[in-house]
Amino acid sequence: MTVLIEEIRKSERSAELAQNLLEIWEKSVRATHTFLSEKEILKIKEYVPGAICGIKTLLVLFDKDENSPLGFMGIGGKKIEMLFLSPDARGKGFGKMLVQYGIGNFSAEEVTVNEQNPNAKGFYEHLGFKTYKTSATDEQGNPYPIAWMKL
């Protein structure tokens, strides 16, 4: 499989791409965010397309052979705001590839991670991120503990 990371500018973000990325988001969340209820997933899903279309920097990982997205990462300022991979693409180094691309090309150096997703926290720790602050709630005040991490 040949992969390609492409920055998708806001003016190039089509409804079709947003739908494809939303599907990746949902599959990824269902595979990794086991602490969320069905109702919570559906509630969050409502604002994901707006986040995808509105994030300053959107990097999409494409399977070049199939010309289809495998995952995506959004960066706002120097912070990784979102990183989601299709479950089939997990464990193949693609997440690391996206993060390293974001660090090298967009100076990404910070991320928040839900502490109830220990695989994600371990992933970022493996890449050199360290927790500098924690909170018992997420940014919206929901009861999901968050770790703020920085390179």
Q: How much strand?
A: 25-35%
Oligomer kind: single chain
Radius of gyration: 15 Å
* Uncertain parts: none
Give the end-to-end Cα distance, rounded to a whole number of Å: 30 Å
Strand line-up of the largest beta sheet? 1-2-3-4-5-7-6
Structural class: alpha+beta
* H/E element sequence: EHHHEEEHEHEE
Number of helices: 5
Give a count of the beta strands, DSSP E runs of length 2 or more: 7
3D shape:
globular
Mean pLDDT: 95
List the defining traits of the structure above.
5 helices; seven-stranded mixed beta sheet; alpha+beta; globular; 151 residues
In short:
This protein is 36% helix and 29% strand. It has five helices and seven strands, in the order βαααβββαβαββ. A seven-stranded mixed sheet has the order 1-2-3-4-5-7-6.
Could you characterize the architecture of this molecule?
The chain has 151 residues and is α+β, with helices and mostly antiparallel strands. The chain has five helices and seven strands; from the N terminus they run βαααβββαβαββ. The protein has helices at residues 15-32, 38-45, 48-54, 94-106, 118-126; strands at 3-7, 57-63, 68-76, 79-85, 110-114, 130-135, 146-150. The chain is globular, with a radius of gyration of 15 Å. The model has no long low-confidence stretch (mean pLDDT 95).
